[in-house]
Amino acid sequence: MTLFADYRPLPGTFDEILDDDGARPPFRRVLEQLGRLTPDELARHQQLAELALLNQGVTFSVYSDNRGTEKIFPFCVMPRLVSAADFAHLEKGLGQRLRALGAFLDDIYDGQRILESGLVPPEMILGASTYRPTLRGVRPPGGVRIHIAGVDLIRDPEGTWRVLEDNLRTPSGVSYVVENRVISKRIFPRAFDLARVHRVDHYPTRLAETLRSVSPVASDDTTAVVLTPGPYNSAYFEHSFLARTMGLELVQAPDLFVDGDIAYVRTTRGPRRVHVIYRRTDEDFLDPDAFRPDSVLGVRGLMRAYAAGNVALANAPGNGVADDKAVYPFVPDMIRFYLGEEPVLAQVPTYVCARDDDRRYVLEHLAELVVKAVDEAGGYGMLMGPQASSAEIEDFRARIQAAPRRYIAQHRIELSTCPTWIGDRRQVAPRRVDLRPYVLTSREGQWVLPGGLTRVALVDGSYVVNSSQGGGSKDTWVLKGGAGL
Amino acid sequence: MISRVADHCFWYGRYVERAESTARLLSTTHNLALDAELEPAACWRPVVVVAGEEDAFKSRWGDDDGAFADGERVEQTLTWDADTGVSIRRSLEGARWNARSIREVVSIDAWESTNELHLYMRSDGARADFAERRFDFYRRIRAGTQLVLGQLRSTMLHDEPLDFIWLGVMLERVSQTARILDVHHHAITTGAPRHEVVATSLWLSLLRSLSGYEPFMKRHQGRVGSDTVIRFLIGEDRFPRSVAYCVHSAYERLCGIRPPTATDLPGGQTLEQLRILDELVRTQRNELHDGEDVHDLLTTVVDEAHAICDSLGKELLGHA
Question: Within an 8 Å CB–CB cutoff, is residue B43 touching chain A?
């Protein structure tokens, strides 16, 4: 264990892999193997990994750069390990959570029983910009709304897994899960073999099955396509990757048109009917007739074809109301209401500024809290109270008072850490991580990919794991249960 | 196949071919200007005209020959200028952008070579090569584009996407050949009678600028004259840059995409236009009696190639 000999977990923080006595029991054998690597070897492996990603063009585009510059998602070779027991718990909890969120969406776009029950204040839902009143009464083809979910999880200082955010619209990152695995298998063949890790490379196959399962026609007669905003989108590599690995056509909005409530793709042999669209475009830009009359983007009439049941959209439009940050605090109540079960997965206790009591507390404790605008993503529009200047705090106080519904607040959670290779110090050190597992829901039910995107805050002391703000990724090894641990 | 994807394939092929063509033209003209004993403007003006940049040059640098007398400026502009449509830089950016838009279609080998060439154009190394090793610079661009064209043929499925790429290559190439030939033919055969040595060096330069020097010699064993050169560049079936070869090859590609018998599929009009042009070139290549005939045929070829691209866009590539 030479490599980990000097490794010390941060005080007050849960380290997932080692505690003060060394490797945690499920990971001992793997860590013994990894620990035999010298810093020289690891530095070389890290270099090789980065070169491989560059050559393969595994890049994302940077929003702020309108010339369409592409960058590599920083990658740390040291894998993040998840025990079989932990993952079994996550699998159960994610399945339950997604069932409840699906039931909530079915309800909110139909009878709205939950609003009558008084569990959720109606104005929180009906006043949300993510709620689409025009979709009320529309049943999605196949009955599925959340075909693909990416749920962000963190672990608190006790090691308890907590849901941080549900991404139910167009969650990205799964291509890195598959590509990172290709590289870590190449680099650590012995440790990988020893660890007995669940595979992740069948994700595209399962996704294609999920898409075909909701088709309005027989599965074998189905034409499914991937819809991308185009090469300038930050996730274009992933769109292209998924189309390539599923063997589907990658289309842009102008390739599609709707005639008589049927969707078609323009081909060199004339129009061909499309039955399922895995859309990676924002729903605002799906159909200018439905959502954004000022937009020239999108496919005119697509929502009517969808409402008529002639084309399935994955994910369903309107899902945003269920992963709205202001709705998040009510998810445990939804689980009880729709399923009659207690939530398996914990989440982060949250103050809803629209509530008088909560708002009063938040305004009195701004310096201790993390305040988030409900309609911004990617780590933008956030106040990190403990690190903020007094001017920033006063700015947020005014913003909250002006529009309380736009804000929620949480206590800062000391995110858990994992051993991470720090190139310039030539050593392994604890860095904070989160985990985004992917859950597919087909007509037949749910499936959780045994893996997920581990994002890591590479900067010492940082909590921000977003790729847009200096985060990187790791391969996530979900260990198989049974003998050998 | 999705029309937009076919469109990207078509333009990918055109831009790669265009980059190669511009690099070759600049390289051979640079070579010619060194020892042809011609006024600089007489060497460079045809290059600018072929590039379709005559008016732009006049408005930027004056109406007289002076606008075309500065060879260095012509080379700079047609290599680096971001506003010049046929510049090598623009062509390689266009090729790379189109390839990146359809990465799920292009073979990984061809994609990587396209990407590398684009990255080279953006590097300081390329600027240094251009400044200090001009011929090496052009050779590198040409070798890079030829590598891409070869990889496309040897690493992709030989079906529709490649047919569209090659259709783009051939239609781009036929326009280039026809324009280069027309402009140079005009420049060589009109004006003051030239000394035979000068005329010969111009014809040879023309052959070189179409990679046709050695193939021509194999056919004609040194008998360089306006008649033989023109007949060769227009009518030689086995020379891959001749007008006849390019038009016929484009027609065959389109037959693969849209067979003449498949009358229920779109593309009928384009196919018919290409068939007629193919037939016209085959007949007319034996009827070139004077400069007027040559000019008329080449003008028709350029105009028809343009019209064919328009029809193709409307019928198959999803243009409005």
Answer: no
- Domain span holding position A399: 352-412
Residue B55: how many other CB atoms lie within 10 Å = 10
Domain boundaries, chain B: 3-315
Domain boundary among A395, A412, A429: A412
Share of chain A above pLDDT 90, in %: 68
Going from the C-alpha of A324 to that of each of A13, A113, A371, A375, the distances in angstroms are 28, 19, 15, 7
A249: helix, coil or strand?
strand
Q: What is the DSSP string of A173-207?
A: -HHHHHHHHHHHHHH-HHHHHHHTBPP-TTHHHHH
Instruction: Inspect the interface and report whether the beta carbons of B103 and A240 lie closer than 8 Å.
Output: yes
Which residue in A has a C-alpha nearest to residue B3's C-alpha? A267
Is A244 close to B104, i.e. CB distance below 8 A?
yes
Q: Would A483 be classed as within a structural domain?
A: no
Please list every residue in chain A whose beta carbon sits closer than 8 Å to the beta carbon of residue B103. 57, 240, 244
Residue of A nearest to B257 (CA): A268
Region A43-56: mean pLDDT is 82
Stated pTM of the model = 0.81
- Give the chain B residue nearest A264 (alpha carbons): B2
List C-alpha distances in Å: A25 to A21, A77, A136: 10, 22, 51
Query: What domain count does chain A have?
Result: 2
First to last CA, chain B: 18
Residue A213 within a domain: yes
Q: Is A240 on the interface with B (CB under 8 A)?
A: yes
Query: Of A2-16, A284-298, B162-176, which one has max mean pLDDT?
Result: B162-176
Q: Are residues A434 and A403 in the same domain?
A: no
Q: Does A430 share its domain with A403?
A: no
Task: Report CA dihedral (A101, A102, A103, A105) to the nearest 10 degrees.
Answer: 90
pLDDT averaged over every residue in chain A: 90
Contact B257 A270 (CB under 8 A): no
